[in-house]
Amino acid sequence: MTTPAQHDRDLAEGRVARLKQDLRDGLTTPPADVEEMDGLVATAHRLLDAELAFDEARRRLADAELESRHAATQRAVVWFAAAPVLVPLAAAALVLFEVLSPVWLLVLVPLFGAGLWIGFAPVRRAGAVIRERTRAAWAGTITALALVLALIPWSGVVVCTILAALGAAGTIALLWRESRLP
Question: Were both Cys, which of 12, 102, 103, 161 would link to 150 (CB 3.0–4.6 Å)?
């Protein structure tokens, strides 16, 4: 099923193709009189107008596709932000009740802030910004998973702790990079 923007673009493209063909057909033989030449000039002017309309329709289609990506990203990042917000929140409660060392706050607070930024900061309508926010959302979710694995006592705690710290730094770096995009 096509969107209205795709339909407009297809109609404009068809009109341009038809006018080009009309112009080619008119130029197969040299014009015999002034009226035929005026007809060709009028067709050329209509072709220029149709090409401008086609360019505008393509721009509107690109804007509609970007808007669709933007809306989907805004909905998705709220769900992705759940893990980077809730896992540090639960771990901070463990720090509060002295189950975990306060050193964990060095990882928990930045990850919590990044999760809030991922989920609730507005996403600008630019392709590069949408890509960066999606990458940051994925990085935050994976970092939250590494943090959960770092909090469970098992043989890979040290590796998961290092991965959680690097993941928190990476998530913040991606969000910083997003904020620097024009």
Answer: 161
Residue 9, domain member (yes or no) = yes
Mind listing the pLDDT tens digit for each residue in 101-127? 999 999 999 999 999 999 999 888 888
Q: Are residues 151 and 107 in the same domain?
A: yes
> Per-residue pLDDT averaged across 43-55, rounded?
92
The burial of 144, by beta-carbon neighbours within 10 Å (0-12 exposed, 13-18 middle, 19 or more buried), is given as buried
Q: Same structural domain for residues 53 and 129?
A: no
- DSSP for 110-157 reads HHHHHHHHHHHSPPPS-HHHHHHHHHHHHHHHHHHHHHHHHHS-STTH
Average pLDDT (69-87) is 91
Region 49-68: what's the mean pLDDT? 92
Query: Burial, 9: exposed, middle or buried (Cβ in 10 Å; 0-12, 13-18, 19+)?
Result: buried
Q: The domain containing residue 151 runs over which residues?
A: 81-180
Decide if 146 is inside a domain.
yes
User: Do 58 and 87 lie in a common domain?
Assistant: no
Query: In the numeric block, which tokens belong to residue 79?
Result: 């769900």
∠ CA(82), CA(78), CA(182), 5° rounding?
A: 125
Q: Does 129 lie in the same domain as 93?
A: yes
